[in-house]
Amino acid sequence: MHDYYEKSMRALQLAGLGESTQKAYTRAVRKLVDYCGKTPDKITEEEIEAYFLHRRNV
C-alpha cells in the first residue's frame, strides 16, 4: 500500500496542488482505507457509500 501513497502524492504534486491540499487528500484516502480494510483499488462503490454514511453519522 505504501507504493500507492507514493504514486498518489506524485500525481497530486504534478497536478500543482498545494502541500496542505495534498496532505488533506492523502488523509481522506487513508481514513477510507482504514475503514474498509482494503487497498484503494479493491474498495467497491458500495463500501464508499457506506463510508460516507458512516462519516455523516460520526
TrEMBL record:
Source organism per UniProt: Desulfoluna butyratoxydans
Protein name: Integrase sam-like n-terminal
Pfam families: Phage_int_SAM_4
Signal sequence coordinates: none
Residue ranges crossing the lipid bilayer per the database entry: none
One GO-annotated biological process of the protein: DNA integration
Ranges for domain Core-binding (CB): 1-58
Record-level Gene Ontology MF annotations: DNA binding
Record key words, sorted: DNA integration, DNA-binding
